[in-house]
Amino acid sequence: RTLALDAPLLLLDDPFNHLDEAMSRTVFGLILGHVAAREGAVLLVTHNTMLLESSAFRRLTCTRAGLVPKD
After folding, report:
1. For residue 1, is pLDDT > 60?
2. How crowded is residue 27: how many other Cβ atoms within 10 Å of its Cβ?
3. For 15, phi and psi rounded to 5 degrees?
4. Which residues lie below 8 Å from residue 48, measured CB to CB, with a gap of 6+?
5. How far apart are the first and last CA of the chain?
6. Where are the alpha helices (DSSP H) in the chain?
């Protein structure tokens, strides 16, 4: 439902939770397609960092010390 809206910013809290690897990749593809088509942005919180490694423009990791940029 959210992807049907024309939102300039998507805030997603672990959208891959309880999904298998194939469905996680499908959902991630939909998210990337939405952002590319609308020149929007995504703030995505997830434990599945493997999906983000090849596509994320900027990654931050939350630690006890605060947010730490990841290369």
Report:
1. no
2. 16
3. -70, -10
4. 16, 24
5. 32
6. 21-38, 49-52
